[in-house]
Design brief:
164 residues, mainly alpha, YutG-like, 9 helices, PgpA-like_sf
């Protein structure tokens, strides 16, 4: 298992690192005016470099592919066919990815899950393929990469305790 395999699987499903980085850039540019797309791509790759993220991505993509091939047992196949709003397992997997850089990622994920910007929107609207898990996983990766940038901000306030 490797980051290269994760990137390859994403590309096979129509998602590039740069497309995820575009979302990260949109989330963080307001707070980091000097932020570059290259820095966002590096952050996405750092997230994809984590084995737990890779395993989650492999699992979600496999379930989407099985649903496309109509190989899931009922009622799971019907739930995936409908992208059932109360299913929630797709968001649960994505939240695992989101949390690797702290709780700040949770708010970004919630925003991305509702607004569905960039490639997330493209995946969500694609009626030829099943992306029940992938759209949320991409949002989770983008949220985690965005959180990573926020946590690594050298200009962030630093607090110390006072001694009396």
């Amino acid at each position: 298992m490797s980051m290269e395999l994760a990137e390859s699987m994403l590309l096979e499903r129509g998602v590039s690192v740069s497309a995820i980085a575009d979302i990260v850039f949109q989330l963080q540019q307001k707070y980091h005016p000097d932020l570059t797309l290259a820095a966002c791509e590096n952050s996405v790759r750092a997230v994809l470099g984590k084995r737990e993220v890779q395993y989650t991505l492999f699992t979600g993509i496999a379930l989407d592919k099985l649903a496309e091939s109509r190989l899931l047992p009922e009622p799971l196949q019907s739930i995936m066919d409908q992208d059932e709003p109360l299913y929630g397992v797709d968001e649960t997997l994505a939240l695992g990815v989101t949390s690797i850089y702290g709780m700040i990622g949770l708010t970004s994920f919630g925003y991305l899950d509702k607004e569905k910007i960039g490639v997330i929107h493209t995946l969500n609207e694609d009626r030829k393929s099943v992306h029940v898990f992938l759209d949320d996983l991409v949002a989770g990766i983008a949220a985690a990469a965005s959180s990573r940038i926020a946590h690594n901000d050298p200009g962030a306030a630093s607090y110390t305790s006072s001694t009396d």
